[in-house]
Task: inverse folding
């Protein structure tokens, strides 16, 4: 790795050069484009990002689960550099190229299930989810779509409608798309009947809602994140996902697994729904698919995907050749470096440390996650009352010490950790030490 794998804080964070760039950003970019930490990056790789002031920060964010293989993985760089010299674009719908087909072949092979599949490529997770709904509606002739509490699916009109949280994603952006309905999610920490009853009761409530209020015969798709991302890294109680998938299968409903944030080795399996052996009818992927280049995919059962008429799917930039080559480099890197096992190793390091902190500090109400997708939920000690103020103070202290962390959660009280799967263990341990000091200082 050419970039030194060390934390280095040489100025206040953000430093003077980043502050100057931030002023330019504020003059040129609308404030609706928020920034978690306004350090302007000049280089990144492994487990660090370097800024314009010469600071080197430990990265516990991976660009929101995008740079799973690192920010400049050699196989990604090599493939993209070669491709950019050959051609940057033709539009696959006009004159196609092999790399698009190879990415689709790999996703058909690697995604859960041994049935015949088809894949096509788009630009973003939201676009992938929207297309999954289009396909489900076309194939079933039905209109209703069921999503879940705490879910996040994107910022387009339809995916914003599918998303649960109002602020900042939906506030004053309505009216929203019709025929979208929300069911309970099995959220163990906050389930009224307790974690032991969570899976059974939540599934029963969701199925009852679909059956009684909508009529299963009117539902085109159920769209579900195997682990809720922006909603707070909520790992549904075991048994919930298989029960929902089974209900969908029995009633001709297309089960869509939104693996935009959970895919590509992030959770210790290549795809999160594999943990309970759930095989979706359609799976949507993005974020970690192409090492930072914009790419997303919709992969589904051949009989569903083949229903759509010629020209009904597509887009000018979908499956851009640079992004396709990057995706092939990502998949090679995951396999050759065994990043699925590496994600499990990260979880084995982080989860015990965080649970030990939970024993010491009452502000940590819950520790949860799988692999390298982990979170802590912050509460008023002795209660389950959300504590967003504690979250903001911990984030401020971590950022000041050179540890980049991200937030999440319906209640604004979840600290989420998404380190690159290639992060050196000494940086992982150092980052956890900074976090511990930040919590202890509350």
Result:
């Amino acid at each position: 790795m050419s970039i030194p794998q060390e934390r280095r804080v040489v100025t206040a964070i953000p430093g003077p050069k980043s502050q100057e760039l931030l002023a330019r950003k504020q003059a040129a970019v609308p404030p609706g484009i928020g920034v978690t930490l306004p350090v302007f990056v000049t280089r990144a790789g492994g487990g660090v990002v370097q800024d314009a002031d010469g600071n080197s920060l430990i990265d516990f964010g991976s660009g929101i689960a995008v740079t799973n293989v690192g920010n400049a993985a050699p196989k990604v760089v090599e493939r993209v550099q070669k491709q950019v010299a050959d051609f940057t674009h033709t539009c696959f719908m006009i004159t196609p190229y092999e790399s698009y087909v190879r990415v689709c072949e790999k996703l058909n092979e690697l995604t859960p299930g041994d049935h015949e599949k088809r894949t096509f490529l788009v630009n973003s997770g939201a676009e992938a989810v929207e297309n999954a709904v289009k396909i489900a509606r076309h194939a079933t002739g039905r209109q209703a779509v069921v999503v879940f509490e705490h879910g996040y699916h994107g910022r387009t009109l339809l995916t914003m409608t599918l998303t649960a949280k109002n602020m900042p994603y939906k506030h004053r952006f309505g009216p929203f798309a019709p025929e979208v309905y929300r069911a309970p999610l099995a959220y163990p920490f906050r389930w009224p009947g307790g974690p032991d009853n969570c899976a059974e009761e939540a599934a029963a409530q969701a199925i009852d809602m679909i059956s009684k209020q909508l009529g299963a015969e009117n539902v085109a798709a159920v769209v579900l994140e195997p682990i809720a991302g922006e909603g707070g890294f909520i790992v549904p109680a075991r048994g919930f996902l298989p029960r929902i998938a089974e209900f969908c299968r029995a009633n001709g409903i297309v089960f869509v697994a939104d693996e935009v944030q959970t895919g590509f080795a992030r959770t210790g399996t290549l795809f999160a729904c594999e943990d309970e052996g759930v095989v979706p009818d359609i799976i949507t992927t993005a974020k970690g698919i192409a090492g930072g280049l914009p790419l997303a995919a919709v992969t589904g059962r051949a009989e569903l995907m083949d229903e759509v008429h010629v020209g009904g799917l597509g887009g000018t930039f979908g499956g851009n050749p640079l992004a396709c080559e990057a995706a092939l480099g990502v998949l090679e890197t995951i396999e050759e470096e065994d990043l699925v096992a590496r994600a499990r190793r990260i979880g084995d390091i982080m989860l015990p440390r965080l649970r030990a902190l939970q024993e010491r500090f009452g502000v940590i109400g819950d520790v949860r996650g799988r692999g390298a997708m982990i979170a802590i939920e912050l509460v008023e000690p002795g209660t389950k009352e959300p504590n967003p103020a504690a979250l903001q103070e911990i984030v401020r202290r971590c950022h000041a010490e050179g540890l980049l962390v991200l937030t999440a959660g319906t209640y604004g009280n979840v600290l989420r950790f998404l380190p690159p799967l290639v992060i050196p263990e000494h940086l992982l341990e150092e980052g956890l030490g900074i976090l511990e000091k930040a919590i202890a200082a509350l």
Notes: The longest strand covers residues 364-370.
